[in-house]
Amino acid sequence: MSPHMVSPIFMVLRIIGVVIGIWAGFEQLYLGHNLEAIRQLTVWTVTSLGIISGIGNCFFNKDVAESLGWRTGSNFQKELGFMHFAFAFTALIIFFFRVGPQADITLLTPYMIFYLMCALLHLWNALHFRRYTWQTITTVILIFIMIGYVAFFGFKALQV
C-alpha cells in the first residue's frame, strides 16, 4: 500500500465507524432507549477508532508517521497503538458483558479527553509549523464534532 494512501484510508474507516455509532445511537434515542444509545455509540466509536488506529500505529507505523510529519523508528508509536487496542478491547468487553452505562461513560471520558488533547496538539502543530494540510485541519474539526456527539449521548444516558 502506498504511504500516501494509508492515512486517508484509515481516516475514512474511522469516520465510517464513528458515523455508524452516531447513527445507531440516534436510532436508539428515537426508540426511547437512552442507555442502549450510549452502549451502541461506545462500542462503535471506541472499537472502530481503537482498532483502526491501533493497526495503523502498530503495523503501518512508518506510513502513519510520515503522513503526520513525525520521526520514524520509535517504539513510542507502537505503544500508542497498544493503548488504542486496549480501549477497543475494553469497549468490546463492556458491550458483550452488558456492564452498563456507567462503564460506557467511564471508558468514553478518558478516550475523548485523549482525542481532545490530540486535536489541540494537531492544531498547535498546524499553527506553529504552518502545516495546514487537509489531514491536520480535517482531523481537528472531526474530533471536535465527535466529542460533541459523545458528550450529547453521555448526558442523555445520565438523564435516565
Describe the oligomeric state of these chains in a short phrase: single chain
Order of helices and strands: HHHHHH
The largest pleated sheet is described as:
none
Shape by Cα distribution: globular
- Low-confidence segments, ≥5 residues, pLDDT <50? none
Q: What portion of the residues fall into strands of 2 or more residues?
A: under 5%
Counting DSSP E segments of at least 2 residues, the number of strands comes to 0
- Range of helix content: over 70%
Average residue pLDDT:
91
Domain count: the total is 1
Structural class: mainly alpha
The helix count comes to: 6
State the end-to-end distance: 47 Å
Cα-atom radius of gyration? 16 Å
Describe the structure.
This protein is mostly helical and 160 residues long. The protein has one domain. 86% of the residues lie in helices and 0% in strands. The protein contains six helices and no strands. The chain has helices at 3-30, 34-59, 61-68, 76-96, 101-129, 134-158. α2 packs across α3 and α5 runs antiparallel to α6. The protein is globular. The mean pLDDT is 91.
